[in-house]
């Protein structure tokens, strides 16, 4: 049984916000399965489980801001989780026999030692409040039941009184397993049958807990939303998008001046007084800029950069691409960026001094060529998703990975394993028309490779002058880890690899 903790998603992350849980206590999870969404300063990241087992308990509620390493949930290994969820906490010793007659109610006797009759306490403890059934005594205040939103919703759906459920979780917390083993409260006979509202008979909308809470706060009906999650489940982003579209829609003048009587009952938030739809996006953009500023300022302050550049002839590479793409559909065709990435990954394997990290005043080589690719976001800022073991992927598969990561990075659908572990970063501003780019090293990495636009330039080959497609490749590297000679060897390796594209 182990703790699932807040992961570190980069050198610039100190804390994260738990946006939503995608699992509940009692659910079986597999290693690599997405179980939560964490909001960082740059994006919403889907967090995967590090081990297989059963969710025993969720330790954090959506919306909580937690530091890296803080426990989020307890994941049990199969039977261990089931035993913990089903077995009650060990009870304290029984009260002495001579004081047992003082217990007046059989309900109090079933508490089994949580409160001693010989030493009554003026204020009941948390575990007493959670474990003791509600007796309905006059003058008693409402009981505080320790249970998460998922458990409360499940109890309401099954007609179970939480006050009558003995919690088996940590500190007497009511868990999902407790609800599943509890019996519904029997309703007293009524003179006339109660007609159930039509909506109770409708099919329940699949949605995450945070999406339901957000929809309630924004007065949105989940039944009218199309979910983007697994099996069509409505997620928090779907609710936010629907609310943004709703607030951006024009409001008829007649609705503002003369509202219909049936709308006065539940007016919800007034459209004319809603904040601008891009307020949240502006906050996210400002937070991203601060995170980038802090990390890049730290890099320039602590890392002694040196810069190299070279111009590479791409005539052989472009000719090979034209021949290969001629027989393929447009969606399967390669672009020069795929060859540039593959050549960089292979060069990193041949020159390992630039593929790794500077940690504890020494260089630690990476276990593979894991390339972080700088992706510009439409709203400003950038992310660097990682292509693991890029040196082992053929150009076609590398191209598919790149397109998938770019698409999901701009939609905020990256996973934790896709934003960490990079050993070298690559940036390419060729599509913006820039001929060369000199970047800033992302610590703790020791190098960054940049590529500009592929342009045609006069080029001499074997004494003959002609026009050839060329690209400018740049390297910025950490002078603590390497010297200029190693950086030059790396750029030379990239050049030689691109002269034989069929071997990539």
Q: Which percent bin holds the helix content?
A: 25-40%
- Counting H and I runs of at least 4 residues, what is the number of helices? 14
**DSSP strand tally:** 20
Instruction: Report the principal-axis shape.
Output: elongated
Structural class: alpha+beta
Keywords:
5-stranded mixed beta sheet; 20% strand; 504 residues; 7-stranded mixed beta sheet; 29% helix; alpha+beta; elongated; single chain
Explain what the structure shows.
The protein is α+β, with helices and mostly antiparallel strands and 504 residues long. It is 29% helix and 20% strand. The protein has helices spanning 79-86, 106-109, 126-131, 149-158, 176-181, 209-218, 236-248, 253-257, 261-264, 279-302, 315-325, 336-350, 395-411, 484-498; strands at residues 2-5, 15-21, 28-29, 34-39, 44-48, 53-58, 65-67, 71-76, 305-313, 356-359, 362-365, 371-373, 375-376, 382-383, 386-387, 414-415, 424-428, 447-451, 455-461, 464-478. The strands form 5 sheets. Strands 9, 12, 15, 17, 18, 19 and 20 form a 7-stranded mixed beta sheet that branches. It has a 5-stranded mixed beta sheet with strand order 7-2-4-5-16. It has a 4-stranded antiparallel beta sheet with strand order 1-8-6-3. Helix 6 (209-218) packs parallel to helix 7, helix 12 crosses helix 13 (395-411) and helix 12 (336-350) crosses helix 14. The chain is elongated and about 90 Å long. It starts with a strand and ends in a 6-residue tail after the last helix. Mean pLDDT is 78; it is low at 80-91, 95-142, 196-202, 251-265 and 270-277.
């Amino acid at each position: 049984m182990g703790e699932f903790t807040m992961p570190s998603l980069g050198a610039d992350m100190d804390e994260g916000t738990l946006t939503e849980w995608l699992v509940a206590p009692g659910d079986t999870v597999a290693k690599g399965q997405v179980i939560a969404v964490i909001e960082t300063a740059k994006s919403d990241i889907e967090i995967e489980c590090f081990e297989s087992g059963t969710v025993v308990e969720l330790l954090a509620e959506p919306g909580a801001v937690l530091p890296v390493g803080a426990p989020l949930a307890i994941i049990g290994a199969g039977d261990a989780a089931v035993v913990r969820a089903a077995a009650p906490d060990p009870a304290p010793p029984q009260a002495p026999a001579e004081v047992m007659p003082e217990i007046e109610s059989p309900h109090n006797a079933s508490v089994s030692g949580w409160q001693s009759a010989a030493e009554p306490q003026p204020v009941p403890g948390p575990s007493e409040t959670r474990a003791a059934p509600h007796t309905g005594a006059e003058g008693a205040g409402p009981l505080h039941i320790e249970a998460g939103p998922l458990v409360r919703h499940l109890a309401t759906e099954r007609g179970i009184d939480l006050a009558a459920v003995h919690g088996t979780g940590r500190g007497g917390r009511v868990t999902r397993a407790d609800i599943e083993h509890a019996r519904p409260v029997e309703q007293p006979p009524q003179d006339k049958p109660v007609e159930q509202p039509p909506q109770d008979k409708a099919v329940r909308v699949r949605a995450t807990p945070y999406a339901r809470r957000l929809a309630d706060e924004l007065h949105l009906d989940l039944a009218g939303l199309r979910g983007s999650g697994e099996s069509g489940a409505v997620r928090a982003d779907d609710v936010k998008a629907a609310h943004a579209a709703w607030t951006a829609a024009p409001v008829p003048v007649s609705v503002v001046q003369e509202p219909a009587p049936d709308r006065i009952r539940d007016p919800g938030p007034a459209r004319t007084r809603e904040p601008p739809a891009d307020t949240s996006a502006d906050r996210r953009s400002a937070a991203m800029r601060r995170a980038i500023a802090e990390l890049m300022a730290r890099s320039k302050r602590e890392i002694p950069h040196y810069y190299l550049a070279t111009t590479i002839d791409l005539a052989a590479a472009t000719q090979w691409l034209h021949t290969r793409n001629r027989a393929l559909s447009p969606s399967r065709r390669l672009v020069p960026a795929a060859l540039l990435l593959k050549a960089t990954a292979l060069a990193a394997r041949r020159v390992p001094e630039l593929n790794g990290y500077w940690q504890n005043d020494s260089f630690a080589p990476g276990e593979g060529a894991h390339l972080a690719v700088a992706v510009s976001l439409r709203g400003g800022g950038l992310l660097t998703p990682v292509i693991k073991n890029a040196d082992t992927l053929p150009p076609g598969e590398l191209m598919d990975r790149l397109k998938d990561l770019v698409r999901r990075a701009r939609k905020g659908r990256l996973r934790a394993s896709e934003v960490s572990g990079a050993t070298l970063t690559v940036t390419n501003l060729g599509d913006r028309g820039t001929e060369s780019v000199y970047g800033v090293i992302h610590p703790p990495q020791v190098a960054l490779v940049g590529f500009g636009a592929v342009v045609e330039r006069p080029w001499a080959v074997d004494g003959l002058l002609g026009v050839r497609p060329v690209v400018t490749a740049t390297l910025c590297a950490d002078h603590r880890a390497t010297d200029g000679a190693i950086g030059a060897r790396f750029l030379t390796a990239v050049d030689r690899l691109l002269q034989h594209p069929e071997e990539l």
